[in-house]
Amino acid sequence: MAYTNSPLVSYTKISPNRTKNRNHAIDTITIHCVVGQCSVETLGNVFAPESRQASSNYGIGYDGKIGMYCEEKDRSWCTSSGVNDHRAITIEVASDTKHPYTVNSKAYASLLDLVTDICKRNGIKKLVWSTNKNDRVNHLKGCNMTVHRDYANKSCPGEYLYSKHGEIAAEVNKRLGATTSETKPETPSASIKAGDVVKIASNATYYDGKKTVPAWVRNKNWIVRECKGDRAVIDKSEDGKNAICSPINTKFLTVVKKTETPSAFKPYLVKINTDALNIRKGAGTNFAKTGCITDKGIYTIVAESKGQGATKGWGKLKSGAGWISLDFVKKV
Ligand SMILES: [Zn+2]
């Protein structure tokens, strides 16, 4: 197969730190965090000296610009694993220098564009992410996204990007599948209820029709506070980090997650089988930690949610302390 490079690149500075001609077809995406809100030019300078012994195929600056440092036909020196980098396209994304190594919305938007482009050109039909390291490194169950921490004692890609991998896969897959249904108009959701998680259409204006909803708002998922007729008030982002106060016409909203209707849930007991299990404010690794269980004790689960970042979902503690991943417990 003939290798190509991304047309989204606006800056190229090929690093000497690479292995010419990769020995494996491109079938994996490995996203890294730079640990610095730098530009593509700065990253090019970082990878320029041979003494650095590092490179990536692509880099994304804090401003969303995309740089190339190693052509796709060559293997970058990025993930501390030759086996991985021979089959992966590696992408460094400008990030904060401290935990959780947050990536800004411009860089994140470019990352989605770039990953989609890489998949399209290299015949990757679907991205599959797993929170299980074994699945990732052994490419089990179709897994084709790996992370640096799988191969070296590093936090890369940082908690922010790591916890977004599922979302990245979902959005890219939507775009990859979207080619066949591109002309389909966005259908307004018939009924939007309080608690539903919604996405805002790219052409959305606020309810009064005067102001366009800015891109950072459109790129997030939002929780509906109330909905009357075609007027939806959404005041909180799904990750809890942002709020907007102006109502939006429901015709611009698509429900991505229905609010879970409470069923006759029977509480049950679990035994914790890990030394330290984080308690989180909500059902997902994207929610803040509120505590940590270290006693391997027995706890009562009073609600379940699929949430994010746990294969078996999340359980709500009876104490009200928060939610725990059900991956690390056993029913007793
Ligand atoms: Zn890395």
Written overview of the protein:
The chain is an alpha+beta fold and 332 residues long. It folds into three domains: 11-180, 3-Layer(aba) Sandwich (Lysozyme-like); 197-257; 268-331, Roll (SH3 type barrels), CATH 2.30.30.40. It contains six helices and 20 strands. Strands 1-5-4-7-3-8 form a six-stranded mixed sheet, with helices on both faces. A five-stranded antiparallel sheet has the order 12-11-10-9-13, with no helix packed on it. Strand 15 (277-280) and strand 16 (289-293) form a beta hairpin. Helix 3 crosses helix 5. The model is unreliable at 178-189 (pLDDT under 50). The site of zinc ion has 3 residues, from loops. Zinc ion binds next to loops.
Multimerization status: single chain
Termini separation: 53 Å
Number of helices: 6
Strand order of the largest sheet: 1-5-4-7-3-8
User: Radius of gyration from the CA trace?
Assistant: 21 Å
Overall residue-averaged pLDDT value: 90
CATH domain class name of the largest domain: Alpha Beta
- Unreliably modeled segments: 178-189
* Annotated CATH architecture of the largest domain: 3-Layer(aba) Sandwich
The counted number of beta strands is 20
> Globular, elongated, flat, extended or rod-shaped: what is the shape?
globular
Q: What share of residues is helical?
A: 10-25%
Along the chain, the helix and strand elements come as EEEHEEEHEHHEHEHEEEEEEEEEEE
Q: Helices and strands: which structural class?
A: alpha+beta
Q: What molecules are bound to this protein?
A: zinc ion
Instruction: Indicate how many domains the architecture comprises.
Output: 3
How much of the residues is beta strand, in percent? 25-35%
CATH superfamily name of the largest domain? Peptidoglycan recognition protein-like
Please summarize the sheet with the most strands.
Answer: 6 strands, mixed
Q: Determine the CATH topology of the largest domain.
A: Lysozyme-like
